[in-house]
Design brief:
The radius of gyration is 18 Å and the shape is globular. Helix 2 crosses helix 4 and helix 3 packs antiparallel against helix 4. The chain has ten helices and ten strands. It is α+β, with helices and mostly antiparallel strands. A hairpin with a 6-residue loop joins strand 8 and strand 9. The strands form two sheets. Strands 1, 2, 3, 4, 5 and 6 form a six-stranded mixed sheet that branches. A four-stranded antiparallel sheet has the order 8-9-7-10. The structure holds L-homoserine. The site of L-homoserine has 11 residues, from helix 4 and helix 5. L-homoserine binds next to helix 4 and helix 5. One of its GO terms (molecular function) is homoserine kinase activity. Pathway: Amino-acid biosynthesis; L-threonine biosynthesis; L-threonine from L-aspartate: step 4/5. It is an enzyme of class 2 (transferase).
Length: 285
Amino acid sequence: MLTVRAPATSANLGSGFDVFGVALDRPADVVSVERADETTIEVSGAGAQYIPEDPAKNTAGVVAAELDAPARIRIDKGVRPSSGLGSSAASAAAAAVALDALYERGLTGEELVRVAAEGEAAVSGEAHADNVAPSILGGFTVVRDDGVLSIDAEVPLVACLPEIVVSTRDARGVVPDSTSMDDVVHTVGSAATLTAGMQRDDPTLVGRGMDEHVVTPARAALIDGYDDVVAAAEAAGATGVTVSGAGPAILAACYPARQRAVASAMVEAFENAGVDARAYRSSVG
Ligand code: HSE
């Protein structure tokens, strides 16, 4: 038996819609695989009751089919579905890495990202490699049609997950079809700032680079308490705050000395808005 841990991830970081992603230290999915004549899947852990065990409908099962690597797959979910923390991507990423090792296929990191993204696509309808890429490669990642870049970085992050559900379908439904040239210019400036911040391990630049005026405001409206949580995080020292992936999790960047205070402030602000929440402190890496 072979066991792989794949971390939760946060996609977009505001200015990099469908492009940027970061690996978080926690939560994580743990996937165990054993060779078998045909693929079977058992799911336990966070939100397991919402996750199909039919291999054709589970990201890990689709990955097994893509790799022609039948296995008994056990998934212990640390990342609950519809969280904005790359839940289905974590299972797909872990399955791709585990099955590649189990069957000694020797795929490169970029090939594993492509296989895991196929798993995501088959289940969610659209392939977003911005979650599977950091789950497999670690660090901060930039995904384009022609490949993936990954950058090691040390920037403290807080991902705060409220006990509400926002489906990726709904969150994509509110994204505007088009935008103004002013917004394009602003977003490009933010994305470049954020990338430079990751390369320099600079929380101020990373936070400033999260600012984005098209996708984020539309999605923020789906998250109860969003404005209060952002204000509380900023008052506690966050350098930038945005929606994590499709939400409802909210991601903040900060300096190491402020990380604990930012996490507490975000949880408290959600609770003041009547929503239970928990925070995960992490560093891109
Ligand atoms: N980039 C995707 C989105 C991530 O924000 O919709 C979720 O799959």
